[in-house]
Specification:
By secondary structure, the chain is an alpha/beta fold. The protein contains seven helices and six strands; from the N terminus they run αβαβαβααβαββα. It has helices at residues 3-22, 38-47, 63-76, 100-103, 105-123, 137-140, 163-172, and strands spanning 27-30, 53-56, 80-83, 126-129, 145-147, 153-155. It has a six-stranded mixed β-sheet with strand order 3-2-1-4-6-5. α2 links the parallel β1 (27-30) and β2. The two termini are 34 Å apart.
């Protein structure tokens, strides 16, 4: 996989985003700033300097993620905007005093991910999202473009990329990996809901381990089936 391979691979993405911009659409990228997120940010940055990147700061991220976000924002000269829940943490506890991430993780994700993104969706036409079909069964059912909430269109330019392509694109452009990846974390979300991956498991196995949950709601509630 060389520069010519990725020139051909990214050409349709550049064309599609260029078409959106020519149509006067307001675009934004949503990013979790994991290793596999960085190629999309690099591609978008090569097309336009003006597309903002939104980071949902749940208040529960690993400190390493926050530092990595800042590093990538500086390295790629990105306009990164953090958005947070309007509900303070002391109100994010159940009747027993436990944080919702322990007792009701779906509600925790609703408060800390879905609600903070809603004002962003209202202000934009296209949500550029880095989900890949090989990451989970839910994502395997997605299409490259799908209707999202509040009149938005979800665009999934990386949907048919795989781990190998992500790795070689990063290598080609000297893009760094999230610092926790070398410690065994391959899918990194909020610290309380993330653990190291079992070598025999899939990429997202370490998320919400032991819970009947595989997605945070961004890709189940904020999408038209």
């Amino acid at each position: 996989m060389d520069a010519a391979y990725f020139e051909q691979k990214t050409a349709p993405i550049r064309q599609r985003i260029g078409d959106f911009l020519d149509e006067g659409k307001k675009l934004f990228v949503g990013s979790s700033f994991q290793s596999h997120s960085i190629p999309l940010l690099h591609i978008v940055r090569s097309i336009s300097h003006d597309i903002p990147v939104y980071f949902i700061d749940t208040g529960f991220h690993f400190p390493d993620t926050i530092r990595f976000k800042d590093q990538i924002a500086q390295q790629l000269d990105l306009n990164v905007i953090s958005t947070r829940s309007a509900v303070c943490k002391r109100l994010q506890c159940d009747a027993g005093g436990s944080f919702y991430f322990a007792s009701d993780p779906d509600h925790c994700c609703y408060l800390n991910k879905i609600q903070p993104l809603e004002p962003v969706l209202i202000e934009h036409d296209v949500w550029i999202n880095g989900v890949r079909a090989d990451q989970s069964e839910t994502r395997r059912q997605m299409r490259e473009t799908q209707k999202g909430p509040l009149g938005t269109l979800r665009y999934h330019p990386m949907l048919n990329w795989n781990n190998k392509e992500i790795f070689y694109y990063r290598k080609l452009h000297n893009l760094p990996a999230h610092p926790l990846e070398e410690k065994g974390y391959l899918s990194i979300g909020c610290e309380p809901c993330t653990r190291k991956m079992d070598p025999n498991g899939d990429e997202r196995q370490g998320r919400w381990f032991g819970m009947k949950k595989t997605e945070c709601g961004l890709h189940t509630q904020l999408i038209e089936k």
